[in-house]
Automatic annotation (TrEMBL), chains A, B:
GO terms for biological process: carbohydrate derivative metabolic process. NCBIfam families: PRK02947.1 (NF002805). Gene3D superfamilies: Glucose-6-phosphate isomerase like protein, domain 1 (3.40.50.10490). The lineage of its organism: Bacteria, Bacillati, Actinomycetota, Actinomycetes, Kitasatosporales. Residues 1-150 form the SIS domain. It comes from the Bacteria. This is SIS domain-containing protein.
Length: 181, 181
C-alpha cells in the first residue's frame, strides 16, 4: 500500500493549519494528483474522508473509477446524511465507491458530553478509521495466504532480521513500492 | 495543544519514506527544534515514540526538562525493555518523563499470527496511542471544567455555529495557538 500524497492536505505539519481544509474544496486538485501518479487500472484506491462532502474526495473517487481503479471509501454515512455536499454534483464520497467502509461517526465527531462543558467533545474518528484500516490489511493478508500467496508485509526494524526481511520485500515488489518519490 | 514539528519526521508524506527513521537518530536535531520553538517554562510537551530508543525523543525530553517544561512520554515500556538505546546516554524516553503513558505495545508492533503467514502482523500502536491521547484531552477538559475554567476546545466546522465558536477560541487564545507558523 502506497500513500497518494496531495500536497498541503495529507501532512499533519501543514501551515497554516487551515490550509488543508481549504484545499479540500478546490476543483481539479484530485485530477491533477491522479494525472501525475503511478496509479493504474486494476489498482485499488482507498479514500478517507469523514463526511465525504468536499470536492477533493468526490472528484478523486469519480476520476479514479473512470480509469479502471477500484475505490474503497472510508467515510461516515451518518455524517454525510447530516451535511450538504460541497461538490458541484451534490454528491458525497459514499456515492462513488465500489466498497464503503462506514465508520458510523456522528456529525461533529464528538463522542462525550458533560454538564460543565458547553459543547460535545472527544473525537473518535482517528481511532475508528485506523482500526478499520488495520483490520482490512490483516484480513487481506489472511485472504492472500489462503490462496497460497505470501503477503508482502513489512516488519519492524527493531526485531531480529527485520531489516533483511524488509529488504527482500522491497526488492521483490520494488516496482510497486513508491517510497522514494 | 500545538504541534511541535520536526521537519522530515512528523509528516506522513516525507520522501523517501525512510528519511524519518534516519533523522530520529541525529544528535542535535531536538535541541535545534526546541531552540526555535515558542515552547516556554511551565508548558507541557507530549513526546510520542513507541520504543523511545532513538536520539530524537531522548534528547527532546532531556532538553525540554532543563528548560522547565513538563514532559509526558507516550511510549511502550515493554518495547524499550526488548531493545537497546541508540542515544549515547544509553537511556530511553521513558527515563526522562514527568509522566509516562504506557501503551504496552509488544516489541515488533504486530498483534496477530497465522499459521500460513511467516511473521507476526497487524500493528496496534496507532490505535492505542491515539486513544490514549484523546482520553488525556477529554479528562483534561473535565478537570478544567471542575475548576470553573471553560476548556478551549475547537469544534467541527460542520456543525451549526462551529466556525463562530472556533473564531472566539482563536481570538481568546490567539497568543498560544500557533497554527499560522
Amino acid at each position: 500500500m502506497n500513500l497518494l500524497a496531495v500536497p498541503g492536505v495529507v501532512g499533519v505539519d501543514v501551515t497554516p493549519a487551515t490550509l488543508g481544509s481549504a484545499l479540500e474544496r478546490v476543483d481539479g486538485l484530485a485530477s491533477a494528483v491522479l494525472d501525475t501518479s503511478p496509479l493504474r487500472a486494476g489498482d485499488t484506491l482507498v479514500i478517507i474522508s469523514l463526511s465525504g462532502r468536499n470536492a477533493l474526495p468526490v472528484e478523486m473517487a469519480r476520476t479514479a473509477r473512470t480509469r479502471g481503479v477500484k475505490v474503497v471509501g472510508v467515510t461516515s454515512v451518518a455524517y454525510a446524511a447530516q451535511t450538504t455536499s460541497r461538490h458541484n454534483s451534490g454528491t458525497f464520497l459514499k456515492d462513488h465507491c465500489d466498497i464503503v467502509l462506514d465508520s458510523k461517526i456522528a456529525v461533529g465527531d464528538a463522542e462525550l458530553t458533560l454538564d460543565t462543558i458547553p459543547a460535545p467533545f472527544a473525537p473518535a474518528s482517528t481511532v475508528v478509521t485506523t482500526a478499520l484500516m488495520q483490520a482490512v490489511l490483516a484480513t487481506t493478508a489472511a485472504a492472500l495466504a489462503d490462496r497460497g500467496i505470501e503477503p508482502p508485509l513489512l516488519r519492524s526494524g527493531n526485531v531480529d532480521g527485520g531489516h533483511e526481511w524488509n529488504s527482500r520485500v522491497m526488492t521483490e515488489y520494488g516496482d510497486r513500492i513508491f517510497y522514494r518519490h
